[in-house]
Amino acid sequence: xxxxxxxxxxSEALSRIPRRAELSDIPSIALIGEIYVRRDEFSRQFLVERxxxxxxxxxxxxxxxxxxxxDYIVQKRLVAKSKFFDRFRxxxxxxxxxxxxxxxxxxxxxxxxxxxSETDVEHLVxxxxxxxxxxxxxxxxxxxxxxxxxxxxxxxxxxSLGPFGCMPARISEALVTQKLQEHKPRxxxxxxxxxxxxxxxxxxxxxxxxxxxxxxxQLIESRLEAFLLQVTRVYETVKKERDGLEKDGEAKxxx
Length: 255
Fold this sequence. Notes:
alpha/beta, 4-stranded parallel beta sheet
């Protein structure tokens, strides 16, 4: 109860911060990739802060995504030592911790500075299953799945961040770059919206960046600028098409 009161108080304090626009009124970007570099401000070169100043809001993939993925590996017996007792104990643990996570997210969402999103690892894995075997455990399938699953429906662009020379990051980049246009319509949750958006933007905004802790080279900076322009255009198209679909739905109901 004490912790919950603290979280509620923090959410209320955040809600009083003046803001120029609501999250729904600005383009969104998902920052995914290797768990360390995407979380460390120095490794990612303060990318979140830089993009915020340019008028974009960035959702960094949470650490909880990896924790839930570890739970998934145990439950699906993708590790050799996943015995019945281990799976049972893990299931009980998830039944306790997952509701707390959802409650905390719901409280923070009231601030208006956080958009509640469910970390559905099974959906991410299923989205990438045709391209990466789930038995190839690691960051590759999460990165590929997140890029394929979240574009258009959840965010307007995706940046995949990885260490310099990281093999999983390069495999993810190759798969998403080559298969995004072909595979996205197959796994889309809002198929009609995705179809309409991709008619205007066949190449959806995806940018893979390798970092070694140094300042991004000029080539990456120029690619980033082009990426942001593309994200803005996709955001405008998604908003227009979503409004059109809602009006079509209302018209059908009235008839």
